[in-house]
């Protein structure tokens, strides 16, 4: 899909990958609703983009996991720019490391990293089928294909996000609904360093695992890769190509792969 003249919503757009996606979309000629739980951040991103591309964006504070607020984003986009063509379900949370995580933390991770996608799709997919097309882009993680050392909530919810994106493509792909799933490793965002800042050894190990696994990319580079993949309507978007080899190794011999990940985790702890 060509994004020029299309209308997009980007959640988690106040910083990081979301802000970079909004900027790249506007530069490519799209109209963008920039949404973030942090409203001042969303407004600041929109103002920065509009300074270069006047009238291309509008910023708004919203909870990407709340159905009523997602509906409000869709209505805002329709009112300002027209029907929504692309939805970037990009908002995400990491979650505390370890097994002793409260149910409320599990609920938050599942709400933001998974149910937010489901709730948006419920609202948009029927519209897209009626209109003959639309595009849902899910930001998951390499952790959704592999695993996450440290945070069970992140690993499990991102696996679920990949699974939902797959299901969405299988179920509605023949009715004009395009789906992509973004699965990066390390990207230079605040989210990357939350484990390091958690004050726990397991959290710090989680951050070291991601940083040492491959190049830490800049959000703008990831956004460019995403738009190239959207133009080609590719499902799996891997800014770090080595993730595909890791995924193949996992599938080829699951037990061997698990032993290797345990050794890798141990080495990270021993070296720090």
From TrEMBL:
Keyword line: Oxidoreductase, Signal
Keyword Ubl conjugation: no
Matches recorded under Pfam families: adh_short (PF00106)
Keyword field contains Signal: yes
Signal peptide: 1-22
Family: Belongs to the short-chain dehydrogenases/reductases (SDR) family.
Official protein name in the record: NADP-dependent 3-hydroxy acid dehydrogenase YdfG
Organism: Nocardia alba
């Amino acid at each position: 899909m060509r994004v020029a003249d299309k209308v997009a919503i980007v959640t988690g757009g106040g910083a990081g990958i979301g802000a970079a996606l909004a900027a790249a979309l506007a530069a490519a000629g799209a109209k963008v609703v920039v949404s973030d739980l942090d409203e001042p951040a969303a407004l600041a991103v929109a103002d920065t983009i509009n300074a270069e591309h006047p009238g291309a964006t509008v910023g708004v504070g919203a909870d990407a996991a709340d159905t009523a607020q997602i509906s409000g984003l869709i209505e805002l986009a329709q009112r300002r720019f027209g029907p929504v063509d692309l939805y970037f379900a990009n908002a995400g949370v990491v979650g505390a490391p370890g097994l002793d995580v409260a149910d409320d933390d599990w609920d938050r991770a599942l709400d933001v990293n998974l149910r937010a996608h489901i709730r948006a799709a419920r609202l948009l997919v029927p519209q897209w089928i009626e209109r003959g097309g639309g595009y849902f882009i899910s930001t998951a993680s390499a952790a959704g294909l592999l695993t996450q050392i440290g945070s069970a909530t992140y690993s499990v919810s991102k696996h679920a996000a990949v699974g939902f994106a797959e299901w969405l493509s299988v179920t509605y792909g023949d009715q004009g609904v395009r789906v992509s799933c973004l699965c990066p490793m390390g990207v230079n965002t605040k989210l990357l360093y939350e484990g390091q800042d958690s004050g726990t050894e397991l959290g710090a190990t989680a951050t070291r695992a991601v940083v040492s696994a491959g190049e830490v990319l800049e959000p703008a580079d990831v956004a460019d890769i995403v738009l190239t993949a959207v133009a080609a309507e590719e499902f799996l978007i891997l800014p770090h190509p080595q993730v595909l080899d890791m995924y193949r190794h996992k599938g080829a011999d699951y037990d061997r792969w698990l032993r290797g990940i345990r050794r890798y985790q141990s080495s990270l702890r021993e070296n720090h």
